[in-house]
Fold this protein.
Amino acid sequence: MIDGFKVTPNQLSALCGAIGATQNTLLSKSVLTKRLQSSNIPIWDSGIKAPPGYYVKGPNKADWLYNCLASEINRSGHSCECVARFVEVVFDPVSYTAEGDRSEYQRILNDTNKVLLTMGWEIGSNGDLHKVVPAETLSEVDR
């Protein structure tokens, strides 16, 4: 359990944007679905159903991820522990041991840590969250 992990709607949106960015091919929707399931977070269903032969656009990956996590936060009585658990599952280094995955993993980790630093958290190289002094400005985040 991550004591004191809290997330606002804006922070959650930024986290989901970093993890679920469209260009993150390493973290496809199917991979994120598996990580959510590993974190015991139910998969959010948009309810959008296309008639046979038609295509209906659903939410993008980041919005879908936000809805999955926000639904679980609301279901659990507003505990943000599920978000911390999910972040640790996503960044568990054992999932990225293939040589080709490491540069994209590092980029996604850096983008996610920029958001987490504003919250007073950071993902270590071992994939675990730990508390840090919160960054208050974008300059501090970039350092």
